[in-house]
Amino acid sequence: MGVSKVRDYLENMGFSGEIIEFDVGTETVELAAAALGTEPARICKTMSFQADEGCILIQTAGDTKISNSKFKQLFGFKAKMLPPDLVLHYTGHPVGGVCAFNIENEEVKIYSDISMKRFDVLYPAAGTGNSAIKMTPDELFKYSKSMEWIDVCNVKAPL
């Protein structure tokens, strides 16, 4: 799908923030944080899980890990990540650039984890493995058309 489609989508939704494109890869939380010069926790990870019908995207803070028990309690089944080909099929974005913007597939349900609410600014990917965009948690929720704020993560202990 790429940055241009995400840019067009966000502009059509009324968002005026600028997409940042890098000469280096930002496919992981650590790479994105280094490229942006920010702490890893402020990188918004968009994780793709298999559902009975379609998939579930969960946006989380970069320092979190999905809690299997919280996930199962909320959704009623065990968390199972999608393989890369199905991620691309459902989202239109490649692994490493997955974001919850411009998702046209009705089989995709989008949620935002409360782990992101502790920050004033986050950086989700913008459709490629070398892009990001600066947003507040409320902007991220709105422009991703998230269904609701959920609590399915545990914050990782520092190394």
Quick recap:
With 159 residues, this protein is α/β, with parallel strands linked by helices. The protein has 5 helices and 9 strands, in the order H-E-H-E-E-E-H-H-E-E-E-H-E-E. A 5-stranded mixed sheet has the order 6-2-3-5-8. Strands 1-7 form a two-stranded antiparallel ribbon.
* Count of DSSP H/I helices: 5
Beta percentage is: 15-25%
Largest sheet: 5 strands, mixed
> Helix content range of the residues, please?
25-40%
Integer average pLDDT: 93
What is the string of SSEs from the N terminus onward?
A: HEHEEEHHEEEHEE
Strand order of the largest sheet: 6-2-3-5-8
Radius of gyration: 14 Å
CA(first)-CA(last) distance = 35 Å
Principal-axis shape = globular
Low-confidence stretches: none
Would you report the number of β strands? 9
Structural class: alpha/beta
Structural description of this entry:
This protein is of the alpha/beta class. Helix content is 26%, strand content 23%. It has helices at residues 2-12, 29-36, 68-75, 84-91, 137-143; strands spanning 19-21, 43-50, 55-61, 64-66, 108-113, 123-124, 131-133, 149-150, 153-155. The strands form 3 sheets. It has a 5-stranded mixed β-sheet. Strands 1-7 form a two-stranded antiparallel sheet. It starts with a helix and ends with a strand.
